[in-house]
Amino acid sequence: MARRTGRPSYQLDKASVGRRRTARYAVVAGVIALVTALLGGLVGYQVGRPDATEAAIASIKQDEAKRDAQQIAELIETARRVRDQVAPVLAAIKTETTGAGAPDAAKARQWQEVMRQAAAPFADPPSGTTATNVARGGLRGAVQQASLAVDAYALAADVSAAQRAALLDVTARQAAEAATIWSVAATQLDQVSVDAGQGHQHVFLDTDPHGGALTPDGAEEGTGG
């Protein structure tokens, strides 16, 4: 009995062969698409991920922002305390230099001690951002100018009446200049406080608005941060 055999390959159903080929092509295409997507995602991650240098810079900036915010808060408190020390002295100098009485040497010594105490917080200032350093430097400069006014007043107490008028005039001008310098520094401090998110902080002296000193803006204390 003859052995049964299948049909020769050239007689196979051409449609069936075509379907198998299409299926293989689809699988291959799917694998290629998957690999391409994975590679694309990996490349995108590598490109978008910050490198070590960028991460370090971002960390340094974040630390600097925290440090500066703390320095600004501390400087505001220092400015309020120093203002309360300096303001009465400048007001008294204005009264003394416009009156007819002779300078009081005892008052001068007392004021000089007040100025030494007011200058103490600025003796060893920390290093902050440029804007904060400018505010601190301005406050220090105002205290130094006020100290010169007090020293001039003290000198006026030890000279003859003929020289006294000139020294008292210098005293009054130096006191006014101290108030002006303070107002500039207070304006700078107000701005850095707003920039740091702490709102408006108006640490100004109570001065004559016609004397040339800057005055606080109309913003409510603590707003704008």
Sequence-ordered SSE layout with sheet pairings:
Elements: H1 14-48, H2 52-98, H3 105-119, H4 130-156, H5 161-195
Molecular structure report:
- It contains five helices and no strands.
- The chain has helices spanning 14-48, 52-98, 105-119, 130-156, 161-195.
- Helix 3 packs antiparallel against helix 4 (130-156).
- Mean pLDDT is 83; it is low at 1-12.
Features of the shown structure:
225 residues, disordered N terminus, mainly alpha, 5 helices
User: Helix proportion of residues, in percent?
Assistant: over 70%
How are helices and strands ordered from N to C?
Answer: HHHHH
Estimated share of beta-strand residues: under 5%
Global morphology: elongated
Mean pLDDT: 83
Question: How many runs of DSSP E, i.e. beta strands?
Answer: 0
Largest sheet: none
Give the CA-CA distance, first to last residue. Answer: 103 Å
Secondary structure category: mainly alpha
Number of helices: 5
Radius of gyration, taken over Cα atoms and rounded to an integer in Å: 39 Å
Uncertain regions spanning at least 5 consecutive residues:
1-12
Could you write a compact summary of the structure shown?
The protein is mostly helical and 225 residues long. It contains five helices and no strands.
